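Hi X.,

You mentioned you wanted examples for the new student's onboarding notes, showing what a folding record looks like when two proteins sit in one file. Here is a clean example. The first protein comes first, with its sequence line followed by its structure tokens.
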Amino acid sequence: MKTPLIRSSELSELNSCNVWLKMESAQPTGSFKQRSIGNACLKYVEKGAKKFISSSGGNAGISVAYMGKALNIPVTVIVPKTTSQKAIDLMLQQDAEVIVQGESWVEANELALSLVNDEAIYIHPFDDQYLWDGVATIIDEVIADGIYPNAVILSVGGGSLISGIHQGLKRNHLDIPIYAIETDGTASLNTAMKMGKHIKLEEVTGIATTLAAKQVCENAFLISQSENVQAMTVSDQDAVTACLKFLDDHRTLVEPACGATLSVLYDKKISFSPTEDVLVIVCGGASITFEQLSKYAEQFSLKTVA
């Protein structure tokens, strides 16, 4: 669904530019994954899918489950042990079958792939052209709202968001920098860019679990090598602090994976001119709760308001 585009007075004043928030947190499932997964599910139904199989640590699985219920198609989601109970509960609420397998997404994904057949179609959480096609509509909506951004800031996990945003920018003839944000413990794109190779991290760590892909999709890496992509990393504490500030400023709860992007603006890590329009993808996060965010805040000795 079309999401609001909001000018943030707080972040605009803080960064001396015009900061525009694309509120993907307002999607029915709480994250931009509804846009990408939703498009993929619809396309595969057109091709005859009778069941959806997916692997996910959270947002993607929730969106597959949502689409399955909406389309009256059974869904099985394989999740790693790191998946929050909140995320699992949200999948179960949509009548999906949820199987917990392995310590990481890689292990969960192996089981998911083994369940695929001619009618049970695999929905990848981040590496599929249909996903990117869905995400690209974000830029179409921004342009339709009359904003032609001078830069885009977004978080990177597996790479579907940056892949789709890049596609949307290209078809709208926008050649602007993309600031790709990761946490220190999930910096698969940042590390690959530094090495100039499509590498896989030995491990991913930290609380931004929805960014925890050991390797970004090849398309995201290729974009980073050919386009104006500026990779940055932030600490888990920076991400949580930004989540708390954003909750106060915009009355919206987002997960640390989204807070990572917001933190570079709250901490003024990028310089913009007063006339520039900066687009921020508020990717959301369905499985975060205020209780969990408060626990993270306590972990980092941050203040919260009950």
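Then the second protein repeats the pattern, sequence line and then tokens:
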Amino acid sequence: MSATINTVIIGTGSYIPENIISGNEFLNSTFFENGSRLEKENSEIIHKFSEITEIVERRYVCPDQLSNQIGAKAAEKAIQNAGIDKETLDYIIFCHNFGDIPLNSNRIDVLPSLASKVKQQLGISNTDCVAYDIIFGCPGWVQGSIQADYYIKSGDAKRVLVIGAETLSRIIDPHDRDSMIFSDGAGAVIYEGVNQTEKKGILAHKTETHALHHGGLLTMGKGSNPEETGGNAYLKMNGRKLYEFAVIQVPQVIKKAIDKAGLTIEDVNIVFVHQANGKMDTAIMKRLFKLYNLDTVPENLVPMTISWLGNSSVATVPTLLDLVLKGQVKGYNVKEGDVAVFASVGAGMHINAFVYRF
């Protein structure tokens, strides 16, 4: 068997903000829905929210931190973990949705690109290291990884750094109870092209965009408080419809990726799925197994961090991977030969997945 180029992970890193935001932080909030104040006690709203999403805590960045800065922190850790010279990176792909948002500004800054800002912070002088951003909703990091695979397998690149970072605490509506789902964080992964006869690394991938009928499930919109003026726009989602969409569509995309890899769900040892909503992810996995006529999802297949990290959008999957690889998610690890699925869903509506052999 002749050698082929495999896209393999050689380093990971993450940055988890220090500020822990529990449900109690929202006890004095004023929540509105459809222009009317919610009559339920906040303690009841918060409890019900935690039951549905499984989120107990989330993380927010410090007042002086920006997305590019926490992305750079995760990248530094990934470079150190890989043990490589940073000047050997061919691409830096920074995946985000809102760029840099200074505290209390609600204004998005993407000039220059966050990837360029990271390259500058890392002190990389190699002009052949190309730095650019991807805006692809929550599935951005997965899509960045797919692009890295294309670059590497084409022979155009040897090493690609893919970062996912977001500071959603700066763009959420404090009067919208759905805002309790969102958080801040950053994760980074370095991929390398390796010539091997054995098929490893990224085996197959699949991406879909369901914009025609579902593009409005996650959008920017005005605040929930009818008395608010100033024209600020906030992250808004149709939670119920998004849940229904994800539970039906995401399993089908994952199966298509597994099919392309010539495998079946029983070959999969671990699933790194976007940490969007605990119960939604559970429902997605149950539906996926039903596509294979299986009624039971094995235990210790899907590591979860949403209960204590919340939903940090593009950062959830690379952060989860980094924590598992470094033994920081109890009951989960990977060994050589294990097959993993990486999958996400988000604004667009985009869905993507790739299959990976360690």
